[in-house]
Amino acid sequence: MAMTLQQLQANLDAINQAIGNPTLKVRFPDGREVTYRSTDELCKAKAEIEGTSARPAGRPAAASGLHSINAATAPRDQPTSIGGS
Known about the structure:
Elements: H1 5-19, E1 25-27, E2 33-35, H2 39-54, H3 63-72
Antiparallel strand pairs: 1-2
Helix pairs in contact: 1-2, 2-3
C-alpha cells in the first residue's frame, strides 16, 4: 500500500528524532516500533523515505528501494538485509 506524503513525512520526522537522540528505537505514527542496529541503518532508512517522498506520485519504486524500505522497517527480532540479499 502506498503511503501519503503526510505519512512519509511523519515517518521521516520520527527517524530524524531518533538520529538526534542516543537511541536506535523509533516509534512511527502508525504504532510500529522499530529498533535499528546502528545510526548508519537509521540514516539509510531516512534516505529511503526521502527518496520515496521525492518521487512523483504514481511512479513505482525500484525493486531495490522496496526491499530496503521493508528491511529498514522490519522489527529488530527479524533478520534483515539492508541494500542487498
